[in-house]
Amino acid sequence: MKKKTNSSRVLTCLIAGIALFSSCTTVNTVERATPVGTRHIIADKRIITDSGLHRKVSIVGLNEGTTHGGFLQIQVEVLNQKNSMQAFSYSIEWFDLNGMLIHTPTSVWIPRQIEGGETLAITAVAPTTTAKDFRVKFIEDVRK
Amino acid sequence: MIKAFNFYFLLLLFPVFGCATHTRYVEPTGPRTLVTSEINIQDFSYAAEDMVQSLLTSGAIDKTQQQPAVLAISRIVNNTTQQIDTDMLVKKIRVALNQSGKVLTTTTMGLGGIAEDPLARDIQQEREFYADKKGPPRLPDYTLSGKIIEQSDRKDNVRQVAYIFQLSLTNDEGLAVWEEEKQIAKQSKRSVIGW
What we know:
The structure holds two protein chains of two kinds. Chain A is of the alpha+beta class. Chain A has one domain: Immunoglobulin-like (Sandwich), CATH 2.60.40. Chain A has two helices and six strands, in the order H-H-E-E-E-E-E-E. In chain A, the strands form two sheets. Chain A has a three-stranded antiparallel β-sheet with strand order 1-2-5. In chain A, strands 4-3-6 form a three-stranded antiparallel β-sheet, with no helix packed on it. In chain A, a hairpin with a 5-residue loop joins strand 1 (58-66) and strand 2. Chain A is globular and about 70 Å long. Chain B is an alpha/beta fold. Chain B has one domain (38-189): Rossmann fold, CATH 3.40.50. Chain B has helices spanning 2-17, 41-58, 87-100, 118-130, and strands at residues 69-79, 103-105, 142-155, 158-171, 176-189. In chain B, strands 2-1-3-4-5 form a five-stranded mixed β-sheet, covered by helices on one side. In chain B, strand 4 (158-171) and strand 5 (176-189) form a beta hairpin. The relative contact order of chain B is 0.15. The interface between A and B is medium-sized, with 26 and 28 residues.
């Protein structure tokens, strides 16, 4: 009986030790209960090839608008479902009315960090007024 | 027999201890570029991307009577410890604004009266002379100026370097109609052997 108590103590200490050394820092938030602004949420199509990344950076929603100058503006809301900070990169491709890719000098994979439980809004503005469609790509941090 | 064994043994070791380097192409805008504490190509891309998006969203360039607006590049100060060509930032912004259809950049007017393209200025002046033009040529609606700043911090074995990109768009009345700042911070840990 005493032996069993000792082993359970060791197990408890081990779990406490792991919990102490693993960085579980999450984000608490507060916001208006009934938001004044209304989002124009659009239907999206998701292709998930990395389910591990999808748990770390899960897509909550997608909404779009138009700037004063007539540029398409999008916002992707992502949530880190893990309890620790995650690093990822994203890239946005823009397409014209014919579905052709619009090349821009500033289209790069942008690295971001998201804390545990944090919701992050990724915003982007189309490079030209001819851009009508878009594709947002996500990848785990692979930089050296 | 022993000599032959030694030869093959050395041959096997060669790829491991030899001076061969493996170089490969990488996508310069891709996710596998190197991260260094110095300011590098992707930092300029991130800054340019943010600046262009901010400028297009602000609508500041839509307020000229004649579209597209004409932009002249003013002084972009490099206040970092590194020798950098500020065109790494400015050219990306210029190209993106040109592609947006909202802005055209003049290459015949520059800081201190120095044209970026002297031949283009000569042609412009010749054309004006023969056309007997009375009024001045179309002057820039806006000028773009800015600064790149570096800030270093160190605590214990962690070093942080921040690069701050500041840009201002000034109209022909001397008012800054758009301003933006983009910060990029990088941390590096001291290794066991050295920094």
